[in-house]
Design goal:
The protein is α/β, with parallel strands linked by helices. The chain folds into 2 domains: 172 residues, Glucose-6-phosphate isomerase like protein, domain 1 (Rossmann fold), CATH 3.40.50.10490; 115 residues, CBS-domain. Helix content is 44%, strand content 17%. The strands form 3 sheets. The chain has a 5-stranded parallel β-sheet with strand order 2-1-3-4-5, sandwiched between helices. Strands 6-7-8-9 form a 4-stranded mixed β-sheet. α2 packs across α7. The radius of gyration is 29 Å and the shape is elongated. 31% of the residues are buried.
Amino acid sequence: MKYLEEARQVLHDEAQALQVLADSLGDSFEKTVECLLGIKGRIAVTGMGKSGHVARKIAATLASTGSPAYFVHPAEASHGDLGMITAEDAVIAISNSGNTAELTDIVLYASQNNMPIVAITRNADSFLGKHCDYLLLQPQMHEACPLDCAPTTSTTVQMALGDALAMCLLTARGFRREDFRRFHPGGSLGQKLSLVRDLMHTGSAMPLLSLDAPMMDVLAEMTRKGFGCVGVMDGETLVGIITDGDLRRHMGPNILESTARELMTVHPVCVDADALSAKAQGIMEDRKITCVFVVDEKQRPMGILSMHDIL
C-alpha cells in the first residue's frame, strides 16, 4: 500500500484539471471547430517534446475519425518539412509554455501563408498565444509530478482537448461506424466493425429450394453448398429452413418421401445486411446455430452468413 496514496493523488490532480478544462471551454472552442470544418486541406499538428508525442496522437485520432491530419516535427520543419504544409491546411500548435523556440518557424510560415493557427497552451501572453488565430487555453494547474516538473497534468489536458476537437468534428461530419471501419480494416477493431454484407455469401452460393422440393434434392443441395442447411422458398420469399439437425430429428424409414415443406422450421432466424457481423455472431451464439440467412424488408434472401465467416 506504500504507493497507493501518491498514485491516487496523481489521478485526482489530473481529473480535477480535466474538470476545470471542461468548465472553461467557450466561444473559442466553438470557433476552432467551425474553422477546422471549413478548411479545404488537412490539419497539421505540431509540438515539441512531450507535447510532440501528444500532437502525434491527436493527429492520428483526427485522421482516423474523418478529419485528414498529419504530424509535423517542428525541428524538422525548419529543415525542409515546411514543404509538407500547404496553404489550404490549418495548424494546431501545442506548447505548454507557448514559447517553444522550435515552433517559431511553423507559426511564421503559417502566418505568411494566411493559414489558420490553433494554439493549445496555458500562456495567453506567450509567443504562440499572441500569434494564433484560435486560442485554446489550458487551465493554470500544477503538474501531477511531486516536483511540479514532469509534464503530466498538462499533457493530459492537451490530449483531452485534442480528443474533444476530434469528436466534435466527427459528429459534425456525420462520421459513421462504417466510415470508422474503412479506416481500421485490420486487427480486431476492423473485424468487430465489419458488416454482414461484407462477409455474406450471395447468389448461387445460397442453398435455396422450393416448398415442394423432394428430400433427395434437399440432401443434395445441403451437401453441395456446405452450410449444413437449406432455405425454403415460397416464390421469392424465404419461409423456412431445414438444417442437418432437422434431418436428424426427423430421421426414419420414410424421410426420403417427405418434401421440404414437411420438414422445415418456419420463421427462420434472419439478419439485416447492414447489421454488424458482431451482432449476427451474438444472435447465432444465443440461438445455438451456425448459419443465418440475410434478407431484405420483404423477406427475400440476399445472402447467407456462417459463424465460420465471422471467426
